[in-house]
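FAQ: What does the model actually see?

It sees only this:
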Amino acid sequence: GNRLRRWALGELRPGSLSASGLMTDNGSGSGLAAVAFDIDGVFKYGREWSPDGYSALQRLAAANIPHVFVTNGGGGLTEKSYASGFAAKVTGAASNASDPAPLMSDENMILSYSPWKRALGAELANRRVLLVGDPYDKVTQVAESYGLRRAVHYQDYARRHSTLNPFRQAKEDGGSHTAVDNKTTGAMGSAQRSQQPPAADADDTDPFAAVLVMCDPFEWFEALQCIVDILCSPTPAISEYDPSVPPVPVHFSNPDVLWKAQHPYPRFGQGAFKIALKALYHTRLRSLRVPEETHDEMVASSFRQWGKPTEATFRFLEERLRAFASAPAAGGARAERFYMVGDNPASDIEGVRRANIFHKAKGNDTAWKGVLVKTGVYKDGDETNGATTVVAGVAEAVDWILACEREHAK
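And it is asked to produce this:
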């Protein structure tokens, strides 16, 4: 009652609250317990939202166990905007959304590209980068919020270089991209002049420092063409291929090849875009007669993956979880018990598996447990990828975590 309200308002120190007989002291020798939740397939099933999500989060808060949300999505929204919409959906689906409300804000919302603000923001703040993803207004707003002052959206770059995409002008004119149906008229000399590269943009001598694939682009052809051009030369409006410099880094926020949308069957996601880009880059290098034996090394040095289950995202996730706990007591590092609640064995549970290998190799007293729910990708009979337990849904997942913590507290 009053003690729970005081804790929610920050008037009680961490670890001073007990719930249902559970005592967790996230600032003392008992170690840190914290939970990461996937969103799609856990709180959201297709277009439906779980009626149990709100109360499940309340029970965690009452037990003084911090939580974050981590998704391979984001849709080009800022963390604040995504969290606001998420909180409204979770609250609206609850049968009895009583106070205190669980934390659902930008503080504990991790989108596929959230690690970029800290990991890439300072390095690329004043560098020219190509921004890939849509909706246009949303992704450019995220780039601005991350301090990327010179981010160029791929569609803006294509508009400034009108010959880059031969299909854009045809689409806007309602005609064909073929020579017999385009708008070019006049003598041969003027036609030839019209096919010359446009005048260079003021920034075209400044090389691109990186490509950021924030989310799925609406125009695959245009995005793929832009990126391949930049991989071949960081100043693509000036030179077709520059062998004197390595290919620029291309950062992908989401490795998922397929995802569950409203269609009855999975649809291609950003992982599929990456596969297409890799294939086209190889093809373009062959056409430029770049030695075949160098292609794989060029791709490996350039393509950089983020999102679950990558190590980069899980290290960021762990740091965010730790930030919600008080500083450890004097005397050294504390034990850490992290739980991942997700629906995808290849993403959520694979991340847990890799994290445990990482911490074991480092000799850290940190362990993850994977809690697989049946409300999304995973179905009975599927391979669990070593999940610690399989439960019906988010309510049962939290019940299981609280039971583990009660057992630990004995």
